[in-house]
Design goal:
This protein is mainly alpha-helical and about 350 residues long. It contains 15 helices and four strands. It is found in: Cell membrane.
């Protein structure tokens, strides 16, 4: 390595890979990224409480939390991919495919089925990452393509109909039927994953390297960050989270269908990640505030009903929220790196 390369590395490393426990994108978020997700959720919750007080007093918060569980899990996976400056349009389809595979295999293999599904969905995500990292296919185009592939596989695997859990579904169903503070374990599963990802990003070199890629991939490469491996890891984590979402879907519904619960979670999951303070341009993420992003997205249909907006306009609300949040988080710096 030349003298110039050595000097560049010495200068770049302290900025991109901070000392242990000093991750800028998590610790020094400031402004919108620190309190925005919480403020948005509380503001909408106050509106709902004023307009429909019976809902809040009748266990409404538990309903919001339980319905947000699959959204939260998918949003956490999406946030990890967004953090490295990419996007995963296929993780909701992977989650639904995982739910179908779980419904099909719970009977034959019983307790091993969730593990098999998680291994499969993690592998699906890793394949996305490998193609992105080594074939240099832009993530939007890549995952748009694999979205169609996974949807087709789900249709074939399910026979274009609803797949019901035939037997051995008690262990999975208990994740929804049991809980803490009347909130199902499916939601707390998402909270635990958020905490684990927060620790990964804040206290490990791997996590800091992933954030460095999102902030400035060119500088990360010159600083000897293993960008390809970390991109693969980000997509693998997205696949793993999608598998957990599939388990949550089966726990709640006891069945899976290409057009049933979970088939329309792509937009809500992306919205939850962005509302949770994740920057779509990469390098800024806090898994803990993504929790509030998911709760907000789950609360939106209730809020729109409370203020008299037709249910058919909910997609319009999601779209408007995404546009507003992207405008707040989008980096205007140009980059030659393929995202």
């Amino acid at each position: 390595m030349s003298k110039i390369d050595n000097e560049a590395t010495k200068i770049a490393v302290p900025v991109l890979i901070p000392a242990r426990g000093k991750l800028p994108s998590v610790k020094r978020l400031g402004g919108w990224h620190a309190i925005g997700p919480i403020v948005i959720f509380l503001a909408i919750l106050v509106v709902v409480a004023i307009l429909t007080p019976a809902f809040i007093g009748g266990g409404g918060l538990a309903i919001i939390a339980s319905s947000s569980a699959p959204i939260l899990l998918l949003a956490l996976g999406q946030a990890m991919v967004l953090n490295v400056g990419s996007i995963d349009l296929s993780n909701a389809a992977i989650g639904l495919l995982g739910a179908i595979l779980l419904a099909l295999t719970l009977g034959p293999v019983a307790g091993l089925s969730p593990l098999i599904v998680l291994l499969a969905t993690t592998a699906f995500g890793a394949v996305n990452g490998l193609i992105l990292a080594y074939a240099q296919v832009p993530s939007f185009a890549l995952t748009l393509g694999t979205l169609g592939i996974f949807q087709a596989i789900a249709l074939v695997a399910s026979g274009r109909t609803t797949v019901y859990v035939s037997s051995n579904g008690e262990s999975v169903r208990s994740l929804y039927e049991s809980g803490i503070a009347n909130v199902p374990m499916t939601f707390w599963m998402g909270v635990l994953l958020a905490v684990a990802l927060w620790v990964l990003l804040r206290y490990t070199r791997i996590g800091r390297g992933m954030t460095a890629i999102g902030k400035n991939e060119s500088a990360a490469i010159f600083s000897a960050v293993r960008t390809r491996s970390l991109k693969v890891l980000a997509f693998a984590l997205s696949g793993f989270a999608a598998g957990l979402a599939g388990i949550a879907i089966i726990a709640q519904a006891g069945s899976a269908s290409p057009t049933g619960l979970g088939s329309d979670l792509l937009l809500p999951a992306i919205a939850a990640a962005l509302i949770g303070g994740t920057s779509i341009s990469g390098g800024v993420v806090n898994p803990l505030t993504v929790i509030f992003g998911a709760l907000t997205v789950a609360l939106v249909p209730i809020a729109t009903t409370a203020v008299g907006i037709d249910a058919q306009a909910q997609s319009l609300v999601y779209g408007a929220v995404i546009i507003a949040v992207v405008a707040l988080t989008m980096s205007r710096n140009k980059s030659s790196i393929v995202k």
